[in-house]
Amino acid sequence: MTSVQEALVILLLVVVLVLLAGSGYIALLRERYRRGRDGDDESARGGRRRDA
């Protein structure tokens, strides 16, 4: 491979890693927000069922 191709492959790998890390971080933030909004209490969850 030429140096340009190698640089593009490395750049692609970096972009994929950044996207994976970003999506994981966003999922973590959403989970924290959901737990904070629900009060992080199992008894509060038992009182309201969404599927009922």
Short description:
With 52 residues, the chain is mostly helical. Helix content is 81%, strand content 0%.
Mean pLDDT: 82
The helix content is over 70%
**From the structure provided, what is the oligomeric state, counting identical versus distinct chains?**
single chain
- End-to-end separation: 59 Å
How does the overall form come out from the CA principal axes?
rod-shaped
- Beta-strand content: under 5%
The total of helices stands at 2
- The overall strand count is 0
Q: Which series of helices and strands comes N to C?
A: HH
Q: What structural class should be given to the helix and strand makeup?
A: mainly alpha
| Poorly predicted segments | none
Biggest beta-sheet profile:
none
Rg over C-alpha atoms, rounded to the nearest angstrom:
20 Å
Q: Could you characterize the architecture of this molecule?
A:
It is built from 2 helices and no strands. It is an all-alpha fold. The N and C termini lie far apart (59 Å). The mean pLDDT is 82.
Layout of strands and helices, then pairs:
Blueprint: H1 3-38, H2 42-47
What key attributes describe this structure?
52 residues; mainly alpha; rod-shaped
